[in-house]
Amino acid sequence: MSQPINIRKALKSFRYAGVGMYDLFRQENNAKIHLIAAALILIAGIWFEISTIEWCIIVIQIALVWSAEAFNTAIEKLADTVTTDYHPSIKIVKDVAAAGVLILAISAVIVAGFIFLPKVLEYLN
To answer: What is the CATH number of the domain that holds 118?
Structure first.
């Protein structure tokens, strides 16, 4: 038989995650850039009155980029804890993790283009 949910333990986990999000946006320059970009996109979404489906797509894209940035930061911090010396394998791990963020950021820009470019062109005409 499974144990009931431990609410205190669950709340503690949420608090740790909140601290992690705070640290991510406080310490990581690229996370700050993604935060500013997300704010601008949210403002544009309100301005152009995007549809519910478009909002869903935008929110998913923002969450994916932020999640990738969080995973990348975690990998970098762990690698730096393992060794501060140069190691070719660790360099590859860190570069590939950063590439994952870049891939998602590029896809988010493309998705934003699909959603907002027609609206911007219509607004300009």
So the answer is: 1.10.287.3610
